[in-house]
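Sat 14:20. Reprocessing the chain from the morning session after the first attempt stalled halfway. Input below, unchanged.
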Amino acid sequence: GITLIALATMYKKSIKGVFYFSLMSFSIALWLFIQFIAQLRINEINDLFIVRLSSAASNLFPIFFLLFITSYLKLTLPRKVYIATTGLFIALIVSNFSTLMINKVDVTPYGIAVKETGILYFIQIIANFSIFIFGLYKLYEISNKVSPTEKSRYRLLFFGIIQALLINVIGTTILLDSLLVQVVMVQSFLVMVGFVSYAIVKHKLFDI
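Finished this time. Tokens:
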């Protein structure tokens, strides 16, 4: 589902910002694929590496989301903000393959779960959360200043993304050891696909 949305929005890349939404969708599809591989446990020796790879891939979301939201909503940010943000998340991606992020994983009936983390793991969560909160706040704010049709588009996009964000933040912090967390986190992205798909079909989101 998320791959189809990525391809559909890629087709409309001429619309300002939609190309970045397509890249964000592809990055989510990549993360879901890595999660799938992790749960298959093809090679038990690589359990920790696969989970670290999954965590590293999640840092692509905020990079493309920031580019999408600022372009699509025509927001102006200093160039140094983009450079600093990209640099931060690249550093976090690299750090995922060290003991500063994820140190130990555990096998549950629902797959592999994170058991022990380093200090940068929570800094990564805060950094991801901050970018999405900024973008979602701007999306909600601007949705109050547009036509009813545009407002419906923005609100569906808003609710689709925010439910996935909240579930994943709770899942990677409070419910880190929960047996169901791996399943629920993945399902939240399927719900997001539903919101975005409905907005595309019903309200012509991205003019698709």
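The mean pLDDT is 83.
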